[in-house]
Write a structure and sequence with these properties.
The protein is α+β, with helices and mostly antiparallel strands. The chain is built from 14 helices and 14 strands. It has 4 domains: 56 residues, no CATH class; 116 residues, no CATH class; 56 residues; 108 residues, no CATH class. Helices cover 41% and strands 15% of the residues. A 5-stranded mixed beta sheet has the order 12-11-10-13-14, with helices on one face. Strands 1-4-5 form a 3-stranded antiparallel beta sheet, with no helix packed on it. Strand 4 and strand 5 form a beta hairpin. Helix 2 runs antiparallel to helix 3. The chain is globular, with a radius of gyration of 27 Å. The two termini are 39 Å apart.
Amino acid sequence: MLTSEIDEPVSCVKCETIMLTVKLMNCLGLMLTVTFFPVSCVNCEIGYMCVNCLGLLTNRTKFVWDNQSFKDFVDACVIEFNKGNRNGGHFNKIGWENLIKHMKEKTGRTFDRIQLKNKWDDMKKDWKVYDQLMRLETGISGTRSLIDASLKWWEEKIKTNKEYAKFRDAYLSMFDTQYALLFRDSVATGNRTMTLLRMDSDDSNSSDDNEVYLVEEDIEFKNLCGLAIKGILLSQTIHRHFHLVLASVLKMSANIIKLTENYNDDVPKYILNNRRYHPFKDCIGAIDGTHIKSSIPQKEEAKYIGLKGYATQNVMVVYDFNMFFTFVWAGWEGTAHDTRIFNEALQRPNLHFPHPRGDKYYVVDVGYLNTKGYLAPYKGTNIRYQISDFQQGQTFAMRAPRGAKEAFNFHHSSI
């Protein structure tokens, strides 16, 4: 059954025809919009569009970007950026209109906003891969025209990330100049992340050495706290003493955030003593991301402001059933997706990520992929997952899980 609701008059985003609209909700939960006159329209990504313009959009032939048209588009993007027509990660309405006019003049073809936005998003993805390649794999800084490396080096890097292949023998000047200008301040790169300060493996084998290490750090921490208090009382710079104490706390992190012995072998007592969690006997912990409000320089705020609406850091944490953190990776920009941070953590051995072994696994939420070692819940528009979803409803029958998938999700989310 379809339900309707009268809406305000709107105009087509292309031909500016005024249309009185009515919203319809169909059985699949999709919102459609039609008009009383003169034609029907849809509420697409760029606003209401009349059926005539929509037909032109649907029937358009796919444009093949050649080197010249792509260069023209990049140049136009730089012009609009310098005019201040980019808000956050995308251009504003004036910026898109100017880009459409510019491409019409240069190519003789009429583009729409969706086509140019798709190309812009592709450029943004390429910048992420390029930044990762240059910053993590090569250690190169400054402007380079190409990466001069051996065949074996490239083969090893491409094995870790197939996207690296596009930069092999490629001319990189555009990435170091124009791409950097367009995306460096708005695209999450994770170049300010930090994780635990691990001790060398040779030192960590000795319990006596560990004991001495802890005692020395405890003394250092107390001394620094004393100096900080003294400095504040003497009206010295609080900033300096704060960072001295913070540095000491970071040194202690490896002794606080760490794995328990045999974490991959034993069944956690939390699960062993709770019958309803026995199906999760091989689970060793959970992984999730949390957003922490942050104070960021204004020129870098764009890439830190995500769905929260204010600047945050996205922090990835791993914790066990003793409620201890076993891994923390902080510093990612708020616009970075949980899945991206997770995938990078798995690919970077220097982070010492605590991988599950054998049949062991972590539980992860809907933002992660369901793969070996990482168990995600069932997904679907009509499948509940969050505990809050099961708390809604006036009767027990309405709140109870419906079917095996929801029953699994209920226990998965509450474990």
